[in-house]
Amino acid sequence: MITKSIPEWFANRNILVTGSTGFMGKVLVAKLLLSCPDIGDIFLLIRKKKCFDSHARLQLLLQQEPFRILREQYPERLMKLIVIHSDITVEGMALSIADKERLMNVSVVFHMAANVRFDMSLKTAIRMNTISTANVVTLAKQLSLLEAFIYISTSFCQCGESVLEERAYQTKISPESVIHMVNTMTDDALEAMRFKLLGEQPNTYAYSKALNEDFVSRCGLPVGIIRPSIVIASYKEPVPGWVDNMNGPTGLMIGAGKGVIRSMLCNANYMSDMIPCDMAINATIALAWQVGTEKSTNPIFLNATANQKNPISWGDALELGKKHVFENPFSQPLWYPGGRMTSSKVLHWLAVIFFQIIPAYLLDSLLIVTGNKPFLVRVQIRVNAGLDLLQYYTMKQWIFRNDNLRDLQHRLCPSDKEIFFMDTKVIHWNEYILKYILGTRQYCLKDDPSTLPRARRVFTYLYFADCLLKLIFGIFLVWIMYTWTISAKPLVAMLIQPSK
């Protein structure tokens, strides 16, 4: 039997997506509509948020860049998007009887919804990520037409392992037991068990992902679990360099580019592992096709990573980023960028104290004296809290096996390989990081490309101001040393004078 291509396989199949308003969710939904034109309905589980109901959030979603081509060229395909009001963190997912009935014709589930904060309490992480996953699985078990349940995890779900295989990992305490603990124990009692439960996991987010994988891999559904590494701006789609959030490397790049971050605790020689969001999504869609066509009774694991194919070290990524940020600066920088990476905690914290915290207090004092509202100390507190959480990952290195990913690529027909590109070997990091920075300016910081000339002029002024400040500081240090030397001469003479 001839295997259908990915668009052919998705034809007339109805899809359910959680997390469609998130960074990767937007790319997934837009890609399905663009590249699988005959796809059935796509049901989006969206909860009310602040003053926006589910339908209003969909309209806001459709105005964003991933859906621009669809709006302009294929508006009829957007009619396939059906909003279902839902809250996946509660039992029954707050689904009405009518909405639940509509979902009974779903063939593929993409479960992407997750809270990605690293600093969640244990109870919050389990409720937002693990209990919600259990609720989605419960619904999926009622779908008689289900052919693929795809869970989007992370390649940093087993941080205690130096090598991550493409297989299931069982948690020491079962997800069911942890869920029971969350539902029956007080917050304080649960937090008291935090270190015992987390073990070698660095944060509650990673721990919840490990629990979710264990739960999903044993649920008895046709399962595919994909583990992207650090997901960054798009390689090609919707446009090169598109990104809409400040998570991970994007936030570091913005902080450093605006002169806020002057030091980072990082081993510059370690390989980073980053994958563009569109490549990660293409692998996710292809995994659904593989699960659906193979009809395997065992879950398929896929490490969507790049380090074995096209590695780049943190140090090289920093140098390329610095070069392109200096040529294409962000608007409204706080100071001229500078600083460096170091693997020494002592040197890092000395740099943070002298080049970030002390200047922030001095400038905030100046703002108060001049009648302005201080904000720099508050910014530094937030930045350093974020860096403390991220630097665990920049001071370690992992090997991610991705034999299953390579095997999947080889299975694709030529047209699928072109449409659902996922081979990270094609990334030219110098060109990619340039587009990443330009995309960050335009889509994340809302800096129109027309602001570049002015931003470059501001950078020139800041460069001379930075040089002048360093000169003044150097002269001050020389004066201090000279004054100390002069004042110390009588004492030295007295000490070395021979006693009579």
Automatic annotation (TrEMBL):
Enzyme Commission code(s) on record: 1.2.1.84
Compartmental location: Membrane
A family per Pfam: NAD_binding_4
Fatty acyl-CoA reductase C-terminal domain location: 355-447
Listed GO biological process terms: long-chain fatty-acyl-CoA metabolic process
Annotated ranges, domain Thioester reductase (TE): 17-283
Any Gene Ontology CC annotation: peroxisome
Function: Catalyzes the reduction of fatty acyl-CoA to fatty alcohols.
Family per record: Belongs to the fatty acyl-CoA reductase family.
Protein name from the UniProt record: Fatty acyl-CoA reductase
Organism: Atta colombica
